[in-house]
Amino acid sequence: MNKLFTIFGNPVSHSISPLLHNYTIRAFGINACYGRTMLENPKYFRETFLKCGFNGANITVPLKETAFENCDEIYGIANNIKAVNTIINKNGKLIGYNTDASGFYESIKEFKGIKSALILGAGGTAKAIANILKTKEIKATVLNRSEKRIKYFLDNDFEAFSWSNFYPKKYDIIINTTSAGLKDNAFPLEENLLNALIKTSYYCIDVIYNKQTPFLKLAKKQNKPHKDGADMLLYQAVLAFEIFFNYQYKKNDIEKHMKYVFGHLLKI
């Protein structure tokens, strides 16, 4: 029976997840298809998922918290993050996971000696990163424009600040999880302050992929090791594929096929 998968988001047309998953599906000879679903109204998330008959889905911004709220069961670190980016349909029940967290950590393993991190933004991706860093004994500090969204972090024993009460200090790595630079030339933080933070850091990473954002351009100008979110996207997709197909395929083989898409089809 043909299996159907999708990625939910708004916007979602830019997502390369269908390319990654469909190429790998074909490489394994699986009878399945992976598409895109743009959802304008989050309240229809569960209804849309079930009516369309999806076997599984990935979820991107701004629906990761919505997905968490609509799951019947939550596994693993997603319980701490309160955000889900991978769901499977198990006999009408929605089972939620978060592969962003482990995917991010895989992507920074090449950066050695990290003990502290400054995370810019306070959405679902920031929650995933903060929680996985905590499990690796890396102190995560969150900085967000407004106070409202940092409540989760403060309630879960993270250091968190709004722009109005932040006092800069040295961090080993600076991580941008905001959309600044995705469709514009904006910085995730006031430029002079961002420059100062980069100067005293060792590494910089932006979860936006396939683009040299203004933030990463600043890092490059200061000769700081940096990278975009392509590796995070790759590794979270590998983990999601394992979940979709119940770990029937070897992780190394999944990674090999998806890396082919990155290296040869997307030229990333």
Explain what this protein looks like in three dimensions:
With 268 residues, the protein is an alpha/beta fold. It folds into two domains: 3-99 and 230-265, Leucine Dehydrogenase, chain A, domain 1 (Rossmann fold, 3-Layer(aba) Sandwich); 112-224, Rossmann fold, CATH 3.40.50.720. It is built from eleven helices and twelve strands. It has helices at residues 17-28, 45-51, 64-69, 78-81, 100-107, 124-135, 151-155, 191-199, 214-221, 230-244, 251-265, and strands at residues 3-9, 32-38, 56-59, 73-74, 86-90, 93-97, 116-120, 139-144, 159-162, 173-176, 203-206, 226-227. Helix 10 (230-244) crosses helix 11.
Keywords:
268 residues; alpha/beta; Rossmann fold; 2 domains; 6-stranded mixed sheet; 6-stranded parallel sheet; 38% helix
Outline the secondary-structure elements.
Layout: E1 3-9, H1 17-28, E2 32-38, H2 45-51, E3 56-59, H3 64-69, E4 73-74, H4 78-81, E5 86-90, E6 93-97, H5 100-107, E7 116-120, H6 124-135, E8 139-144, H7 151-155, E9 159-162, E10 173-176, H8 191-199, E11 203-206, H9 214-221, E12 226-227, H10 230-244, H11 251-265
Parallel strand pairs: 1-2, 1-3, 4-6, 7-8, 7-10, 8-9, 10-11, 11-12
Antiparallel strand pairs: 3-5, 5-6
CATH architecture level-2 label of the largest domain: 3-Layer(aba) Sandwich
In what range is the share of β-strand residues?
15-25%
Number of domains: 2
- CATH topology of the largest domain: the name is Rossmann fold
Continuous helix count? 11
Q: For the terminal residues, how far apart are their CA atoms?
A: 34 Å
Helix content: 25-40%
Query: How many DSSP-defined strands?
Result: 12
